[in-house]
């Protein structure tokens, strides 16, 4: 703990713990300014903070400090504007949180590595699904990329966008349980065959729910064929019952599917796909997601990934 002059930035008082932690005697610190326990890159930030100080000012935050030996510390400080022996001063209570910050950074790095592995694994699994259905090769990847770009345009936080990418890669995982002859059938599907196809969201959910993703990947797979008016499947969910991520993947899935070739028909093209989204925005598809998707393509020059 210490007190420093708001005008000159000189130490006016320090306790013994401060002296021990920073490696100075009390007299040495009282002959110095608070700038001298900061590394050079922190000084502009400190000067800016001091300019904002007023009577009764309170502040809490983490700063980088420097000991006499040059050791860098992460220090959580709480400050309060006071009058000290007739001088306008700041009372500072400081706590060394270096070990905590190092641990947090190590945890963040480990989490980043795990997420990178998850993305690579999701991509690999989606390719396995596509091997059984060569007509839709690249579908999962394109849906993943479009979903993430819609999420980004909706100003979702980066972690949530990353989850959209993973969900996009895995949304059709349940199709691995569908016989290949049905997936690649060039003609119209029978009612029974269509019912088998419509089971893939449930099958994907059953596989994915056992994996502890940091995002709702299993539910997105379960819900990506649900529709805002309750006409979708497999559970007939309505509007807010459907996760935002699932609503995004649903739009991306429709756009990619309609624009691309399928065993039973040639691709209808992007114009037709966007017309479908526009026509049914609010009824089948989330209106905000639809508007964002349309803006990406029509105003921002977005193109489906190849």
Question: Would you write up a description of this structure?
Answer:
By secondary structure, this protein is of the alpha+beta class. The protein folds into two domains: 2-96, Beta-Lactamase (2-Layer Sandwich); 107-298, Hypothetical protein af1432 (Orthogonal Bundle). It is 49% helix and 13% strand. The protein contains 13 helices and five strands. The protein has helices at residues 16-22, 26-30, 43-51, 98-131, 139-153, 158-170, 180-183, 191-197, 200-208, 217-223, 244-259, 270-280, 287-298, and strands at residues 2-5, 11-14, 58-66, 72-84, 87-96. The chain has a five-stranded antiparallel sheet. A hairpin with a 2-residue loop joins strand 4 (72-84) and strand 5. The mean pLDDT is 90.
Mean pLDDT: 90
Structural class: alpha+beta
Task: Sketch the major β-sheet.
Answer: 5 strands, antiparallel
Give the number of helices.
13
In one word, what is the shape? elongated
Question: What topology emerges from the helices and strands here?
Answer:
Elements: E1 2-5, E2 11-14, H1 16-22, H2 26-30, H3 43-51, E3 58-66, E4 72-84, E5 87-96, H4 98-131, H5 139-153, H6 158-170, H7 180-183, H8 191-197, H9 200-208, H10 217-223, H11 244-259, H12 270-280, H13 287-298
Helix pairs in contact: 4-6, 5-6, 5-11, 6-10, 9-10, 10-11, 11-12
